[in-house]
Amino acid sequence: SDHHLDYPISPAHMDWSKNYPMHFAPKDGEGDENSVTQDSGKKVEFADIGCGYGGLLVALSTVFPDKLMLGMEIRVKVEEYVNQKILALRKKHPGSYDNASILRMNAMKFLPNFFEKHQLSKLFFLFPDPHFKKRKHKARIITPTLLSEYAYVLRPGGIIYTISDVKELHLWMVKHLDAHPLFVRIPDEELVGDLAVEHVRNATEEGQKVERNKGDKYLACYRRITDDE
Ligand code: SAM
After folding, report:
1. Model-level pTM?
2. Staple partner for 54: which of 82, 143, 176, 180, CB 3.0–4.6 Å?
3. From the annotation, which residues make up the binding site for S-adenosyl-L-methionine?
C-alpha cells in the first residue's frame, strides 16, 4: 500500500540531499560535517521505474559517472536493501556511486511531483510485473495515460527502454508506445552503440534470473520526439 508515501508538492520542493549528499546541500541547512554546502548543479537524469534490487543502477553508475540516476521502488524492504547496498559501495569505493540512489515511491503516481518537464534523458522499465489477468491490465506500468506523463518528464531525444521475458506484456508495451504520438521506436541496429542496452539486458536481478532459466528477452526502446511547442 502507498498510503504513507511522502512526495514533494513540486520538484522544486524536493530535498535530494539525502539521496545525493555529494551533489545537494540540505534544504533546511541542517547537514552534518560531511554535507556539501552548495549544489553541484546536476539534476536526476535517469529513472529506473520498479528498479527492484538495483542491479541496473549499480552497473550504470560507473558507466555514466557524471549522470545522477534514481531507482524508484514501491516495496519498503527492497528500497532499504538497495539503499544499504549503495551506501556500502560508496564506502568501499570513495568517489564512486555518489550519483546513484533509490526512492521508495509509487511510480504510477506523482512522477511530475519529483521531476520537472523534460528533466530526464533515460527512463527504464525492466522486466515489469506482467499483471496477466485482463482486469489487472490497468495496473500495468505502461498505459496511454502514464505514457503521456513519461513524455512530460522525458526530454525530446530522451529514451524509454523496455524489456520483458513475457511476450504478451512486451507486445502490450509496443502497442501502446507505437500508438503514442510522442514516441518512435529505435531500430535495433541503432541501439548497437548504446552503452545502456547491454546492462538493460543483463544487469538486473530479474534479467539474470531469465538468463539462468534460458528465457527469452524482448527489448523495445523508444525515442521521445520533439512536440508541438
Ligand atoms: N526492474 C527490476 C529487475 O529487472 O530486476 C525488478 C523487476 S520486478 C518483476 C518489478 C518491480 O517493480 C518490483 O520490485 C515491484 O515492487 C516494482 N513495482 C511494481 N509496481 C510499482 C510501482 N507502481 N512503483 C514502483 N515500483 C513498482
Report:
1. 0.96
2. 82
3. 50, 73-74, 106-107, 126, 204-206
Phi and psi at residue 216, to the nearest 5°: -80, 155
Backbone angles phi, psi at 57, to 5 degrees: -60, -45
Q: Whole-angstrom Cα distance, residue 104 to residue 100?
A: 14
**Residue 197 one-letter amino acid:** V
Q: Whose CA is nearest to atom 11 of ligand 1?
A: 50
Cβ neighbours, 10 Å, residue 50 = 20
Q: Is 29 helix (H, G, I), strand (E, B) or coil?
A: coil
Residue type, 166: V
Walk me through the domains of the chain, giving residue ranges and CATH numbers: 38-224 (3.40.50.150)
User: Which among 2, 15, 129, 188 is annotated as catalytic?
Assistant: 129
Q: Does residue 146 have its Cβ closer than 6 Å to ligand 1?
A: no
Residue whose grid cell is 568501499: 92
74-122 pLDDT tens trace: 999 999 999 999 999 999 999 999 999 999 999 999 899 999 999 999 9
The verdict on whether 129 is a catalytic residue reads yes
